[in-house]
Write a structure and sequence with these properties.
homodimer, alpha/beta, 2 domains, seven-stranded parallel β-sheet, 16 helices
Chain lengths: ~325, ~325
């Protein structure tokens, strides 16, 4: 085994990472991000070490100030002596309004702090793998021993909602000008938010937005006496105002959750769904890896030359159990 | 067979649709959008009837005025006696800036026109199926006999880029305030655009944007003497200014394309990629349909109860060729 292979071997990296090696953690994140052959096996090893961190998801529309909030939250957590891992999920579109460069500049002051580990994941071209990468990387931070893991997403599309499923506490950040609160409901944010934040609270309409959110929350059916009451906080994150209260609210939510949660039905369903997702991803990887195989290659060539249409060729392939199992039987 | 089943049977719907039945077309679109068991077989039948329509993709950042342009283009095409099918792909996020309601209102005047068929596809919860739905529905319009098929997307994420692969001509709409043209390059729009439109051309910076785009296009390596020169048009779609020229540019592009295109390498690769995509989608459907099967169900229960972690369970499933082939062997 050459030095280079050793540096990339997921097993060795996992051992080194679990022993506290930051460089191994960084390399392992890259392995996981690339979704290579060893991903599921690596994650299975790491999964056993998970569950100690408090994972906080921060989501909301572009321009709501999520990175500024994250940065301020990190600062407060560090003052309390806590370690933090941050997964920042970059926007899928350069037009979506998130200023990635600006975000990185706002986070810059934390880059030299050994107690903080920040990693950006990019959406482009990931074809759904991003939700899985985001969850896996947050689990890596957890297994590595970070006290807090923050998952920051730009935008509130399906990928972002999927990533949020790994979070213990979901913080939804809004700004007064983000449009009326009806949009919050349409986006399904009312369902996933454990804490609402109205940021840039000095602007017009902030108080009205808070009131509207509280009214909508009031309409939700309570789950029981011990049910969590979703708070609506006001922040001016750029001045550090309100972010300490945000941390306290997240901690209170986590305490409440731990008190209430016997493994609940929703969590069980999520875990089952994850099994199928992991299978899906692995099957797709094998399918793509096997595309140059004999018969499959011939079938694809027939499509390329116009002999068969793509739907017909796919049905041929799916109708031939032998070819199909050869293709997906595994390995590279 | 009951009347209700007959109304939903893809085979009967396909026959009726190909015979010109608008209601059957509408029902078939719903079948295709739901991505049920018969999707690939239906599309294979329809694929053979495709290739007559001129499929125009219209994409660009939210708020660029794509729906207004589409509406104006429809109007001009109808004046020329052409029939039009429109697939409008709704934004994945209510925060992305696209005003879906407004779009529909702008299109409203065409809803009573028998020569125009408009269908919106929604992103939410589609998990990557949207790109496939968008392409399939545009092919349905083609097979139905529409002269023009317009695919309008909101946003320029991966899904939108994927959908655009089915278009003969890709129109990228920008507005001066959409940010500098460097973003155009970052989004990969320079690679996919056959025609650029600077809409809201009366605003500041429109001419500068046009000049910058032309400079960037000039830097692209030309493919040969007969290569298509990507034009940059200026429009004020809300006043109908410039959209006639846009249609002419699209027609010129289609003529140029037909002159040049012997089945090219890029197209062949796309068709091959589609075979794998269709296989993927079908495998996923079968995997999800088979989730309650005996052994698989037991494995999922073990995950739900915490006995196994989801990665481990997925690896178990993938490591058991018998279980796996039973699961994906087909049927529902």
């Amino acid at each position: 085994m050459t030095t280079m292979t050793r540096k990339r071997d997921p097993k060795l990296l996992t051992e080194a990472m679990l022993a506290g090696d930051r460089v191994a953690l960084a390399r392992l994140i890259t392995v996981i991000e690339n979704r290579g052959a060893g991903t599921a096996a690596t994650m299975s090893k790491i999964y056993k070490k998970c569950g100690k961190a408090h994972t906080i998801g921060i989501t909301g529309p572009p321009g709501a100030g999520k990175s500024t909030i994250t940065s301020s939250v990190i600062e407060h957590l560090r003052e309390r002596g806590k370690t933090v891992g941050v997964v920042a999920v970059d926007p899928s579109s350069p037009f979506s309004g998130g200023s990635v460069l600006g975000d990185r500049i706002r986070m810059q002051k934390h880059f030299l702090d050994e107690g903080v580990f920040i990693r950006s994941l990019s959406t482009r071209g990931s074809h759904g793998g991003l939700a899985r990468s985001g969850r896996d990387v947050s689990r890596l931070f957890d297994a590595f021993g970070k006290d807090y893991v923050i998952i920051e997403t730009v935008g509130v599309g399906q990928t972002e909602l999927d990533i949020m499923e790994v979070a213990d506490t979901v913080v939804v950040v809004l700004v007064p000008e983000a449009g009326d609160t009806v949009q919050v409901m349409k986006a399904g944010l009312l369902e996933i938010a454990d804490v609402f934040v109205v940021n840039k609270a000095d602007r017009d309409g902030a108080l009205r937005m808070k009131t509207e959110l509280e009214m909508m929350l009031h309409l939700k059916t309570p789950e029981g006496d011990d049910a969590w009451q979703v708070p609506v906080l006001m922040t001016q994150a750029s001045a550090g105002v309100g972010t300490l209260e945000l941390i306290d609210a997240c901690v209170a939510h986590q305490d409440n959750r731990k008190r209430r949660v016997t493994p609940d039905a929703r969590m069980q369903e999520r875990l089952k769904a994850e099994v199928l997702e992991i299978c899906e991803e692995e099957l797709m990887r094998r399918l793509r890896a096997g595309r140059t195989n004999g018969e499959v290659g011939a079938l694809l060539d027939a499509v390329g030359s116009g002999e068969k249409d793509p739907y017909e060729a796919a049905l041929d392939l799916l109708g031939s159990p032998e070819e199909l199992s050869k293709l997906i039987a595994g390995g590279d």
